[in-house]
Hints:
By secondary structure, the protein is mostly beta strands. It folds into 2 domains: 6-104, no CATH class; 109-209. The chain is elongated and about 55 Å long. The model has no long low-confidence stretch (mean pLDDT 95). It has one helix at 6-19, and strands spanning 22-27, 31-32, 36-37, 44-46, 60-62, 75-82, 86-87, 94-96, 98-104, 112-113, 117-118, 132-133, 137-138, 152-153, 157-158, 172-173, 177-178, 192-193, 197-198, 212-213.
Amino acid sequence: MSKLTPTGIKHCVSRALKRGNWIIRADEDGVSYGDFRWRDVGEWTVAPDWDETPECGGGLHGQDQDHGGYIQGSRLVFCDTRGPHVAIDLGNKVKVPAARILLVNALPGGLHVSGDLDLGYSQITALPGGLHVGGDLNLRFTQITELPGDLHVGGDLYLRYSQITALPGTLHVGGSLDLRHTQITELPGTLHVGGDLNLSFTQITALPGGLHVGG
């Protein structure tokens, strides 16, 4: 079977977002736990040991629209999936019988995640426009330097040790905001933080008058 063309990949990404049959996961240049090797971009990878029990093992693991907060590896991939999404007992990841890598170290625009989204320690360098995270968003130790103006985070936003240098004035964080060990030197006056604001080990020396912090 021939590989997907760039147009074909774009179509598959759009369809996966619409249907919800996608996962986000990470590996080390195509190699995951147990030396399992993923196929190339656009080719289906099938779990040889597929098992529908809600336990680790017996499938391809990642985070989906409702179950996030799990990542293991530095290469981030966005995949469409085939077959059921089985939630693992811990509730922070799922497993599927087959998946196909569509994007590497990138996420599609307009991505909506109802739960948490963990991108920490991955090689992703930019977030897409229209990203909506209902739970927590973890960007710790990433190379991301700026946030999109339309980013929505309903839970906590973790930026500790990231490469973020400034925050958009439109940023609204429903939970807490962790800015420890960042290079941010000032905060926008329109920043809204529903929970706590952690500025330890930053170069911020003053707070703007319009800042709202609920915690």
